[in-house]
C-alpha cells in the first residue's frame, strides 16, 4: 500500500467512497485515532460497515441497525479481520469518526485527525493480519503527515472518555507501538 500525500488516497487498498465527509479547516493533520467497529455487533466480514459508511445499510436486516439508522458517520480507513484495508475518505478531507472529542485541549478532533476502524469489539483480540496492516498503514500516514508522531496516536476512548470505549482492552497497545518502533528503524536502514 502506498499513500499519495497529494490526493490523500492510498493505492493498493480497496476504495469505497463515503458521502459522509467535508472539507477540513486549514491546519496540520496531526493525530491518528484508532477505533473498532462490527456490524452487527461481534459479527465479522458482513460488509455492513461499508454499507453503513455509505448510508446504504438496510435497517430491516438486524434489530441493532434501527438504532443507528439516522447516523451519518465514516472513517478514513477500515481494517478487516483478514487485514484487508478499505479507504472511505481522502486523508485530506474530514471524515466523521470522532464526534465530540478533545486531544491535548484541542476540541473537534475530526478537524485534524485520521480515523482508522479495526473490525472487532472491545473484548475480542484483534488478529495478526490487522496489526500488520495497521502498522503498515500507520507508517504511511506518518510519512505523509509528519506531525503524527507516536505520542499523537490514540484510541477513541482517549479523546472521548466516558462516551466511547474503543478500541477497548483487547487492543494490544504495547504490541502495536513495538511494531511501529521496529518499522521506523527498518525505514531508516
From TrEMBL:
Q: What is its EC number?
A: 3.5.1.28
Q: What is its main location?
A: cytoplasm
- Protein family: Belongs to the N-acetylmuramoyl-L-alanine amidase 2 family.
What is the annotated localization of this protein? Cytoplasm
Q: What name appears for this protein in its UniProt entry? A: 1,6-anhydro-N-acetylmuramyl-L-alanine amidase AmpD
Q: Which keywords does the record carry?
A: Cell wall biogenesis/degradation, Cytoplasm, Hydrolase, Metal-binding, Zinc
Q: Does the keyword Lyase apply?
A: no
Amino acid at each position: 500500500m502506498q499513500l499519495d500525500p497529494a490526493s490523500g488516497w492510498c493505492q493498493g487498498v480497496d476504495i469505497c467512497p463515503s458521502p459522509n465527509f467535508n472539507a477540513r479547516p486549514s491546519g496540520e493533520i496531526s493525530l491518528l485515532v484508532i477505533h473498532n467497529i462490527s456490524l452487527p455487533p461481534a459479527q465479522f466480514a458482513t460488509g455492513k460497515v461499508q454499507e453503513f459508511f455509505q448510508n446504504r445499510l438496510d435497517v430491516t436486516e438486524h434489530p441493532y441497525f434501527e438504532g443507528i439508522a439516522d447516523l451519518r458517520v465514516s472513517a478514513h480507513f477500515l481494517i478487516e479481520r483478514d487485514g484487508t484495508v478499505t479507504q472511505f475518505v481522502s486523508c485530506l478531507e474530514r471524515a466523521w469518526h470522532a464526534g465530540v472529542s478533545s486531544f491535548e485541549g484541542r476540541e473537534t478532533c475530526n478537524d485534524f485527525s485520521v480515523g482508522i476502524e479495526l473490525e472487532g469489539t472491545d473484548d475480542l483480540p484483534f488478529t495478526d493480519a490487522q496489526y500488520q496492516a495497521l502498522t503498515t498503514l500507520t507508517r504511511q500516514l506518518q510519512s505523509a503527515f509528519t506531525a503524527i508522531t507516536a505520542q499523537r496516536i490514540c484510541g477513541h476512548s482517549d479523546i472521548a472518555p466516558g462516551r466511547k470505549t474503543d478500541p477497548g482492552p483487547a487492543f494490544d497497545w504495547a504490541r502495536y507501538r513495538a511494531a511501529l518502533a521496529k518499522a521506523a528503524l527498518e525505514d531508516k536502514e
